[in-house]
Design goal:
By secondary structure, the chain is of the alpha/beta class. The chain has helices spanning 16-27, 61-75, 124-129, 156-165, 185-193, 248-255, 277-298; strands at 3-12, 32-35, 79-80, 86-90, 93-97, 101-110, 114-116, 133-134, 148-152, 171-175, 197-200, 203-211, 214-221, 224-230, 232-235, 239-241, 263-265. It folds into two domains: 3-115 and 240-298, FAD/NAD(P)-binding domain, CATH 3.50.50; 118-235, FAD/NAD(P)-binding domain (3-Layer(bba) Sandwich), CATH 3.50.50.60. The chain is built from seven helices and 17 strands. Helix 1 links the parallel strand 1 (3-12) and strand 2 (32-35). It is elongated and about 70 Å long. The two termini are 37 Å apart. The relative contact order is 0.19. The protein binds flavin-adenine dinucleotide (FAD). The site of flavin-adenine dinucleotide has 35 residues, from helix 1, helix 4 and helix 7. Flavin-adenine dinucleotide binds next to helix 1, helix 4 and helix 7.
């Protein structure tokens, strides 16, 4: 490990939760470091974000995510763009390790979001490694020109992905396991009106096979096995909180949080079932303000106050 950094507050994650928390802490004069694989987070996958107040026309997810980077830079938040591999508590501090750096912090805010769930069927890993199967639209977008794409899933994310790709792709099939969708009615309506998106209900994907530059889905429909042939497949069957870098002790704390802990979780990584940008930002802001209060009032630490306006 080449670098060692000591800071008052470390934040892990570059999505709306930690970006909000980092800006608030930094403007309050607290010494911080934000560590993240990238800046922007999951919202860069959104076709059009229409539930954020202040954007009457909606905002394209990718553009919205890009603005976090600009704002963090403008404010001057110190950022390390590396993947966190392990986090553990060492005496009264937290040790955060990437491949290159160890960061030691007294307080730690984790906003590492969620990761997409896998289908868990034969041929999935091979399809992924061969660039035929994806879990996020952000990674597929530039490959979709005139392609026939299968999207597996029945929620908001599957429908949002289909709408996101409709102009670039030739044909899109949304493949549901059941006859139900949990997607927002407005997304269902847009999908219905799109002339190149078709919804297949009660289609359970059982196996994936690569053949002649295509990906073949072996699907069970009404007890019969059928095949669907696609150029690319996108899986959108749900997401789970992302904290597998935590030590066993800290996973226990995640499951059973302590009120006075200096470790806090914000945004989609929390156990909250509602995953939305404004909730992530609110979480980040609340934890940042509580942390500032705790540091300045209880501990008499006033950080390195900076002139920021
Ligand atoms: C297709 C789609 C459409 C959506 N549309 C909307 C919408 O219209 N409106 C809305 O409000 N919400 C929407 N959402 C949900 C929204 O994207 C999330 O609620 C929000 O991004 C959560 O923010 P977060 O900061 O908690 O986590 P994330 O945005 O997931 O950010 C997590 C951050 O942690 C980083 N990270 C993860 N692991 C590590 C690691 N080991 N080391 C270093 N960094 C790490 C990531 O790189 C990322 O920067 C949508 C989501 C999807 C997938």
């Amino acid at each position: 490990m080449k670098n060692k950094i000591i800071t008052k507050v470390a934040l892990i994650g570059g999505g709306p939760a930690c970006a909000t928390a980092a800006i608030q802490l930094f403007r309050s004069g607290i010494e911080i470091i934000l560590i993240s694989k990238e800046i922007g987070g999951t919202i860069k996958n959104a076709n059009l974000v229409e539930n954020l107040i202040g954007y009457p026309e909606g905002v394209v997810g990718r553009e919205f995510a890009k603005s976090f980077r600009l704002q963090l830079t403008k404010v001057g938040v110190p950022v390390i763009l590396e993947e966190v591999l392990t986090v553990e508590q060492v005496t009264n501090n937290y040790s955060i390790k990437t491949a290159e750096t160890e960061i030691i912090s007294e307080y730690l805010i984790i906003g590492t979001g969620s990761f997409p769930m896998k289908l868990d069927v034969e041929g999935e890993k091979e399809s992924f490694l061969n660039g035929k199967l994806f879990y996020e639209v952000f990674n597929i977008k530039q490959l979709t020109d005139k392609k026939d794409i299968g999207i597996i899933g029945s929620g908001d994310v599957a429908y949002d992905y289909a709408l996101n790709l409709q102009d670039a792709a030739n044909k899109i099939s949304i493949i549901h396991r059941t006859d139900k969708t949990s997607s927002l009615p407005i997304l269902q309506k847009r999908v219905k009106n799109a002339n190149n998106i078709v919804v297949f209900k009660n289609h359970v994907v059982k196996k994936l096979v690569l053949k002649d530059d295509k990906i073949i889905l072996e699907v069970e429909e009404d007890g019969k096995r059928i095949t669907m042939i696609k150029d690319l497949v996108l899986v959108a069957i749900g997401r789970k909180p992302n904290y597998d870098f935590l030590s066993v002790d800290l996973i226990s704390e995640y499951n059973d949080p302590k009120v006075d802990s200096k470790l806090k979780f914000v945004g989609d990584v929390t156990k909250n079932n509602f995953r939305q940008v404004s909730i992530a930002m609110g979480d980040g802001m609340k934890v940042a303000m509580e942390t500032v209060k705790r540091i300045t009032e209880k501990e008499g630490y006033h950080g390195t106050f900076r002139q920021v306006w």
